[in-house]
Amino acid sequence: MIAAMTTQVYAALVTIVVVYFILLGAIFLMRAAMVGTEDKYAAKGKVYKVRGFYFWGLCVVLTVGLFWTLRFLPYEEFQQKPGEIVTVVGMQWAWKMGIGSTDVKPKDFTGANQITLPVDTPITFQVTSEDVNHNFSIYNDRGVLLAQTQAMPGYRNDLQYRFREKGDYPILCLEYCGAPHTIMTGKIHVE
Amino acid sequence: MSNKTREPMKPLDAEEFRKQRRLMVTWGVTLLVLFPLLIGLGLFMRLNQGELVHLQPNTFYAIMTLHGLGMAGLLFSFALGGLHFLVGTRFARTSVKVGYFVFIGVVVGVIGLVVATLIGGFAAGWYLLYPLPFKGTSWPEWSSGLTFISLLILGVVWLVGCVHIVRALSLEYGGFFQLMGWRYLGNKEPEEELPPIALISVVSLVPGILAFLAGAVFLIMFLFQLFEPSLEFNPLMMKNILFFFGHTLVNITIYCAVGWVYTLFPEFTGRAWKLTKVTVIAWNATFLFILFAYFHHLYMDFAQPISIQYAGQLASYMSAVPATAVTIFGVIAQLYHSKIKWGVIPLSFFLGAVGWAIGGIAAVVDSTIAVNKVLHNTLWVPAHFHTYMLMGVVLFILGFLYYLTAPQSGKEGGPKAGWAFWTFVTGSYGFLLMFYLGGMNSIPRRFAEYSTMGISSSHEIGALLARLAVFFVVLVLLGIITMGISIFIRLMRWVVTDATSTESSA
Ligand code: HEM
Ligand SMILES: [Cu+2]
Fold it and tell me: What string of H, E and C letters represents the secondary structure of B53-120?
């Protein structure tokens, strides 16, 4: 169960919990604001005392959050050499993918919008674009976004990913790139 | 009023006040007319995504572009107009002429954008990501040119409007460091108080000035390229410039509106809301975070230096500290045991702060690089910024408009919130929830339709959520139009009341 939890679900859970407390607090406050038993200095004093705790609590949470989450950066997922290198070129409105690194210009690169890759192998996608900005996004067949990187003309972004399961992985473009943007799809077969 | 900040400015005479008021009413009516229309565009997008109507993709994206630019532009313009009035009638003289100059510029710019998108079909999205405006292929060059020129006009008049308010404040309260409240940082209490709105205006408008200068630079570069297509700019640099512009614009819209909340809320709670050392430090920090938070738009550009990515997450996280520990707790200290009456005015301000906090947590979650890698450019992104725009800024604006037009009510809190208000709030949260659920389910943003994704579950979920959203958007429209009509009538009444009698309480 836990293993199947995606990052999206964690993100949503954190958000839901915090929003729940915001709403509880808001309702409590709306009621507490309608009475006026204390003089205002006493009331403010109480609030500021809570604020002191809140401030330090928040600092701790944010610091822990920073250290925790900065361990999961997408920039260099694995230290070892990639088992496979894939060149990816985005164009209006298709993907060109091919095995291996390349020196040819993005415009002259020939590739297909389908590719077959090995399972459980560290793979580096060398992603660029020949015209406008695109975004190379890997989904699984249940529609979960797994990894992405921008495809920017003139730059090469290296996305590292390891497919854990065999199957078909749809590729979408997640950077709006003109009217036919939504048909800019591809597929990775993992065996 | 218990506001004990020094009473610096010679009060306006009746004639001057009337002029400022007419300008404010002009902004109010403009907002009331344009806002529902822009929501209508949003409705069309959701209808299309829900497969209840069928638009050509380019029509969808032209609508999306106009909706985004129009909303961001309208709300910022109104926030600026609101500050111009509030500052100008209470704290430091602002010029009505400059105010109308800004207004006319905004109208011209908006007309330009409407023509460029709806007639010209310009559809590069509100952020004009370079080099898409030149390579869209489905819209003519003149529509790109018209968009750049319209935006340039907007940028220039906003720049003038910002500089004008900052200048007016500095004539009254001293130079930049004075306005940034540095006199509070010593050990002694400052002899002369600075009203919070002065500090907040400067913290938002100075980054605004920098952003509009940056905006002018990239728009001029765009115009060059239009006339000289062989030119090529560095796309990563352009992306940095235009997110600095766009992010800052949207960000400071909220802060401008927060400025008037600091000023007006005390009138309903009977408690002064004054600057202290802590608030000053907080807002000075916010100044920096406004400038650097935009880095979080480029996390998925792996070519951007990693140190900047770290800085982006750090600045985004840190910005939660002053926003909540100072402003949200300020609201709490205002309210707790204050015996307030929950009329629509304090209610709007309060719920606006709640919406701001909710949008804020969603933003902080997404500004985590490890999370952004699966939420970037999904519907989670419009989810969070629509939250603090619709349930933050727009509520602040409604509160502000009710306040202006019901000045006598004072501590009563203004008229009671009626069904229209609650319909608006309910509809908005329902509409937002569909965006959040979309983001959670990896539904991409800026997809005119979900049927082409090639993933049947995503297609079904995306379209279903859009259809549900349509229902809530109708509620939003119902609420906002009803409230709009009543606010319009109030504005028309307010603009002819005897100026001297309103002035004392306004
Ligand atoms: C009930 C009111 C609103 C509705 C129904 C609505 C609807 C929408 C929809 C459907 C989208 C496209 C989402 C997508 O990427 O698939 C969108 C985008 C956007 N909206 Fe709204 N919206 C509303 C209010 C606002 C407000 C108050 C703002 C204020 C800033 C705003 C600013 C934007 C912006 C900047 C975009 C992005 C445009 C782009 O991607 O180029 N919207 N809105
Ligand atoms: Cu694309």
Answer: CCCCHHHHHHHHHHHHHHHHHHHHHHHHHHHHHHHHHHCCCCCHHHHHHHHHHHHHHHHHHHHHHHHC
A100, A181: one domain? yes
Is residue A97 domain-shared with residue A19, that is, in the same domain? no
pLDDT of residue A22: 93
A147–B374 CB contact, under 8 Å: yes
- Considering the entire predicted model, what is its pTM? 0.95
- What span, in angstroms and rounded, lies between the C-alpha atoms of A76 and A128? 17
The sign of the CA dihedral B52, B56, B57, B61 is negative
Containing B373, the helix (H) or strand (E) segment is helix B369-375
Beta bridge partners of A128: A89
Cα B23 to Cα A79: distance, rounded to the nearest angstrom: 62
A75 burial via Cβ count (<10 Å: 0-12, 13-18, 19+): middle
Task: Tell me which H or E stretch contains A108.
Answer: none
| Complex ipTM tops 0.90 | yes
> What tokens appear for B128 in the block?
């004009």
Residue A172, beta-bridge partner list: A137
Residues in chain B: 506
Measure A104 CA to nearest chain B CA, in Å: 19
State the average pLDDT over residues B185-198. 87
Cα of A104 to ligand 1 centre, how many Å?
40
Q: Please give the sequence-ordered ranges of beta strands (E in DSSP) within B304-424, or none if there are none.
A: none
Q: Are residues A152 and A59 in the same domain?
A: no
DSSP A153: B
Q: How many residues does chain A have?
A: 191
pLDDT, tens digit, 9 for 90 and up, residues B279-296: 999 999 999 988 988 899
Look at chain A and report how many structural domains it folds into.
Answer: 2
- Contact yes or no for B405/B494 (Cβ under 8 A): yes
Chain B, nearest residue to A17 by Cα: B361
Peptide bond preceding B422 in cis form (omega within 30 of 0): no
Q: Which of A57, A72, A87 is the last residue of a domain?
A: A72
A109-132: pLDDT as tens digits: 999 999 999 999 999 999 999 999
For residue A77, give how far its alpha carbon lies from the nearest alpha carbon of chain B (Å): 11
Q: Which of A9, A15, A73 sits opposite B369 (nearest CB)?
A: A73
Paired strand residues for A84: A123
pLDDT surpasses 50 at B3: no
For chain B positions 360-379, those within 8 Å of chain A (CB to CB) are 361-362, 365-366, 368-371, 373-378
Burial of B217 (0-12, 13-18, 19+ CB in 10 A): middle
Q: How much helix, strand and coil, in percent to the nearest 5, is found in chain B?
A: 75, 0, 25
Which is nearest to B32 in space by CA: B495, B488, B494? Answer: B488
Last-in-domain residue among A72, A99, A124: A72
pLDDT digits (tens, 9 = 90+) for B115-137: 999 999 999 999 899 999 998 77
